[in-house]
Specification:
Growth Hormone, Chain: A, 2 domains, 17 helices
Length: about 425
């Protein structure tokens, strides 16, 4: 006779879904998921349109570069504004601006009057808006759910992001091929409108500044100017032992992983697997990594928020480090794919665990600025990682992966000698 599950068993089984019981988080999740699906149409249509207009890879690279540059310039400012104004309001304005920008491009493409300079303008707008949207969207989560739900909430949001990134590009490619570029931009516009409506429906009081900030009124008074607010956020991040440690640890992971996962994987597919698999080798490897990331995020989101966080970070980093080491010696696509799946699992676990820990341990008044600093630092580190990966890959692909993996393993070993990570275990 089957035993009926107890309430505790059901509670454990559906831990990942708990945040969806909260109306405002549910609206945020819908807004983010639909908007991220629309982003895939933009990411396919914009490069295709640029190449149609110019036929130049240099032009495409520069269009993408100006978006990254604009995002980097305004990231710290975006974080400061997220702490001074309602995160909900910043997200709402961001979605409205993006909807207006993509609607304009839709009209220009539909009527056949689009020009290259307009794509540069669109990229700048998106870069600036992203700089304001990201800190707001991350800092609003702790305002919507209790601390114990943070891993599940981040797992749902980031897992949905990864799911959209896996499924969206193929659908977007079909729309561009069978319909038109205008249709792709129109779909992206519609998703931003939907996201804006969902954010607008969120209760205003939920996204307001938390009461915990009352004890910091004197400090806030000294930081009335925006520059002072940014500097205060930088000082807070440096003086808070755990926040500083986590930001540095994220920077190391990004540095060791971003370049090898983009430049390195493309080179790996070209030099070792092109004869048998052609360009599809890269697609299979990226899919394996993406699937692993999704698994890791779901697992991290299903864990309790207050237990074994240090152990999860240690284990995830070990998976990343040893995975990169093994990838350097992968001469068969199956080997590479299995290795990348485990690397993805480690990346997903680390992503959700560290982000949730940052959200839980950062003073609510400072969360936007800390997230802005995180985004700013990631942009700088990623750029350096791309550049170095390109140089090393040309000399030795094995050295790129082995060196990156070894650096990660050294970093986690050194971390274990201190008390910060061991205290979380």
């Amino acid at each position: 006779m089957a035993v009926k599950p107890t309430t505790i068993q059901r509670d454990r089984e559906f831990r990942l879904l708990k945040p969806l019981r909260i109306r405002d988080f549910r609206l945020l999740w819908l807004a983010q998921g639909v908007s991220l699906f629309g982003d895939q149409f933009y990411l396919v249509a914009l490069p295709w349109l640029t190449l149609q207009l110019t036929g130049s890879g240099l032009a495409l690279g520069s269009v993408l570069m100006v978006a990254g540059g604009a995002r980097a310039v305004f990231q710290l400012l975006g974080g400061a504004l997220s702490d001074r104004f309602s995160a909900r309001s910043l997200m709402l304005i961001s979605n409205i601006v993006r909807a207006a920008a993509t609607a304009t491009i839709t009209a220009l493409v539909t009527f056949g009057v689009v020009e290259l300079w307009q794509l540069y303008a669109l990229s700048i707008v998106f870069g600036v808006v992203d700089a304001f949207f990201f800190p707001a969207s991350v800092s609003v989560v702790p305002q919507l759910v209790v601390k114990e739900y943070l891993p599940a909430a981040n797992g749902l949001l980031r897992g949905t992001n990864r799911l959209m990134a896996l499924s969206g590009p193929a659908i977007a490619g079909l729309v561009v091929f069978h319909r038109s570029l205008g249709s792709a931009f129109a779909i992206d516009t519609a998703t931003f409108v939907f996201a804006a409506i969902m954010v607008w429906l969120m209760r205003k009081q939920v996204a307001a500044a938390p009461e915990e900030g009352e004890e910091g009124k004197t400090s806030e008074a000294r930081s009335n100017r925006l520059l002072g607010s940014i500097i205060e956020g930088l000082k807070y991040s440096w003086r808070h032992p755990l926040v500083k440690y986590l930001l540095f640890f994220i920077a190391i992971i990004e540095f060791c992983f971003v370049g090898p996962s983009s430049v390195g994987l493309a080179t790996l597919a070209k030099t070792r697997f092109e004869t048998d698999w052609g360009a599809s080798a890269l697609g299979w490897m990226l899919s394996a990594f993406g699937a692993g990331m999704l698994i890791g995020m779901v697992v991290a989101g299903s864990m309790k928020a207050d237990r074994g966080r240090g152990k999860v970070i240690i284990g995830a980093t070990l998976l990343l480090g040893f995975g990169l080491l093994l990838l350097g010696f992968a001469h068969e696509l199956l080997w590479a794919g299995v290795t990348l799946t485990f690397i993805g699992i480690g990346g997903g676990l680390a992503n959700i665990t560290i982000l949730s820990l940052l959200q839980a341990e950062t003073d609510r008044r400072m969360l936007g600025r800390v997230m802005g600093l995180l985004m700013f630092g990631s942009t700088l580190v990623e750029s350096l990682s791309y550049a170095l990966a390109g140089v090393i890959a040309d000399e030795s692909l094995t050295a790129l992966f082995v060196g990156s993996g070894a650096l990660l393993l050294i970093a986690i070993s050194l971390s274990l000698t201190g008390r910060t990570l061991r205290a979380l275990a």
